[in-house]
Design brief:
CATH superfamily of the largest domain: AN1-like Zinc finger
Shape: rod-shaped
Radius of gyration: 27 Å
Number of strands: 4
Order of helices and strands: HEEEEHH
CATH class of the largest domain: Few Secondary Structures
Structural class: mainly alpha
Helix content: 40-55%
Number of helices: 3
Low-confidence stretches: none
Strand content: 5-15%
Mean pLDDT: 79
Length: 95
C-alpha cells in the first residue's frame, strides 16, 4: 500500500519519496534531504549557473539586523565609559 504512494524515487539516494522536489537547475527529482543543489551535487554548481535567490524581505531583515548590532555596540561602549567614570569617582572619593 505504501509503495503505491511513493511515485518518485530520489535520483541521488534512491529512496522512495512521497513529496518529490524538482531541482530548478538540473530538473532532477529529489527527496527532502537532497532537494537543495548543494545536497545533491547539482551539475549547475560546477558550471557556476546556480545563484541563490534572496528576497527583498531577507535583504531588508539582514540590513536591519546589522544596524541593530551596530547600535548595540554603541550602547555597550557608553555603558563601559560610564562604569569606568563611576569607578574613578568612587576611588577619588575614598582617597
Amino acid at each position: 500500500m505504501e509503495e503505491d504512494k511513493a511515485l518518485n524515487v530520489c535520483q541521488y539516494c534512491g529512496k522512495p519519496t512521497y513529496l518529490p522536489f524538482r531541482c530548478p537547475y538540473c530538473g532532477g527529482i529529489f527527496c527532502e534531504e537532497h532537494r537543495l543543489p548543494e545536497a545533491h551535487n547539482c551539475p549547475s554548481l560546477r558550471e557556476k549557473r546556480y545563484v541563490p535567490h534572496y528576497s527583498e524581505v531577507h535583504v531588508d531583515y539582514s540590513t536591519r539586523q546589522k544596524n541593530e548590532k551596530e547600535f548595540e555596540y554603541v550602547v555597550y561602549a557608553v555603558l563601559l565609559v560610564a562604569i569606568v567614570e563611576f569607578t574613578f569617582w568612587v576611588l577619588k572619593a575614598l582617597v
